[in-house]
Amino acid sequence: MIYINDESYPIEFAKEAKLCPHIALKYGKDSFIYKTAQFIEEFYNNKSYVEVLTSGSTGKPKSIRAEKQRMLASASMTVSFLRLKEKNTVLLCMPLEHIAGKMVIVRALYQNLKIITQKPSANPFATAPQNLDFAAITPMQAYCALEDEHSRKIMASCRKIIIGGGFIDKNLYEKLITLPCEIYHSYGMTETLSHIALKRISKEKYEFKPLPGVTVNLSARGTLVIDAPKICSQLLETNDIAEITDNGFIIKGRIDNVINSGGIKLIPEEIEEKLSLVIKTPIAVTARKSSKFGEEAILISEQELNETLLNKAYQNLNKYEKPKAVIINKIPLTATNKINRAQLKALFFKI
């Protein structure tokens, strides 16, 4: 059976393309539940793949083909890791153009979970029911939910939550560890059909732990190499600078974001993490040309930062990491609310 919003439908409805007409009569063709039905019908059609848009974090979003059997294999690994049971409730609140939203549905179909749809928004818990079993959200959605008392209670009542699609800063991390539910930060990408590793968010800072059937190593460049034969047909070398640990791995930043300043390699993500211990408003670190250093790090902030705050934040940096300038500007984001590094650098590199 297919379970959507407390209603059940025979799988044959989707296989015979009857699900969408049935839901359209009740909810209309513009509803998010109708889009959910469209994807379910697509997943059960005679094609062996579905089209998925990449996030656009490393360039313009592009469409790739995701094999359905590999999506089911990915779903199996997550369901096993999180110990999700048949008829558990799962919140679907992610856009269905990208892999994260599609995989919520595939996990539900694989394990006969009950899908609870919420139109994607900054705060999906505002109107979501209590006592959900599972939810997949972004850091922005987690932040917005925790800012509202009612939404925080709903979020706290959810048994298991995975947060993916972006960096979790120190301020958000500290708020998340106060919740009673199991919360995990996920690591993955469109090419790995959502996440291949999860990190438990707790007072103890654990590393990312690969899902069953996934192994990782480092390339000669120091970037993460993923071996996940059930979901990727070949080894996948990422652009993420990583450190392998006894139980998993730690991500430090992306090699294509590294700033080579006078021969010193600076990782913007690491600098941002250190600065966010003090600065709680949106910031990003990027590069601009420098006649002395070749390129140098600069800090982009969406709000004015006073000198006292900056000096306090800079105490967390070494002498090479300190930005050479602070520029007030809107920070460009991708469709999945990650910092658009390429666009950001293009804005300021020639300044």
Summarize the structure.
The chain is an alpha/beta fold.
Secondary-structure topology with pairs:
Blueprint (H helix, E strand, L loop, with lengths): L1 E3 L2 E3 L1 H5 L3 H9 L4 H12 L5 E5 L9 E5 H15 L6 E4 L6 H13 L2 E4 L16 E4 L1 H8 L2 H8 L3 E4 L6 H7 L5 E8 L4 E7 L8 E2 L4 E4 L4 E5 L8 E9 L4 E6 L4 E3 L2 E3 L1 H8 L7 E8 L3 E8 L5 H8 L11 E3 L12 H8 L3
Helix pairs in contact: 2-3, 3-5, 4-5
Describe this structure in words.
This protein is globular. By secondary structure, it is an alpha/beta fold. The protein is 29% helix and 28% strand. The chain has helices spanning 11-15, 19-27, 32-43, 68-82, 99-111, 139-146, 149-156, 170-176, 268-275, 307-314, 341-348, and strands at residues 2-4, 7-9, 49-53, 63-67, 89-92, 114-117, 134-137, 160-163, 182-189, 194-200, 209-210, 215-218, 223-227, 236-244, 249-254, 259-261, 264-266, 283-290, 294-301, 326-328. It has 11 helices and 20 strands. The longest helix has 15 residues, at 68-82. The protein has 3 domains: 1-46, no CATH class; 48-210, ANL, N-terminal domain (Rossmann fold, 3-Layer(aba) Sandwich), CATH 3.40.50.12780; 258-348, ANL, C-terminal domain (GMP Synthetase, Chain A, domain 3), CATH 3.30.300. Helix 4 (68-82) crosses helix 5 (99-111). The model has no long low-confidence stretch (mean pLDDT 92). The strands form 5 sheets. Strands 2-1-6-5-7-8-9-10-11 form a 9-stranded mixed beta sheet.
Strand numbers in spatial order across the main sheet? 2-1-6-5-7-8-9-10-11
User: Beta-sheet strand percentage?
Assistant: 25-35%
Rg computed from alpha carbons, rounded to a whole number of angstroms: 21 Å
CATH hierarchy, class of the largest domain:
Alpha Beta
* Main beta-sheet strand count, sense and barrel state: 9 strands, mixed
Number of helices: 11
CATH topology of the largest domain: Rossmann fold
DSSP summary, beta strand count: 20
Structural class: alpha/beta
Instruction: Report the mean per-residue pLDDT as an integer.
Output: 92
- For the record, the CATH architecture of the largest domain stands as 3-Layer(aba) Sandwich
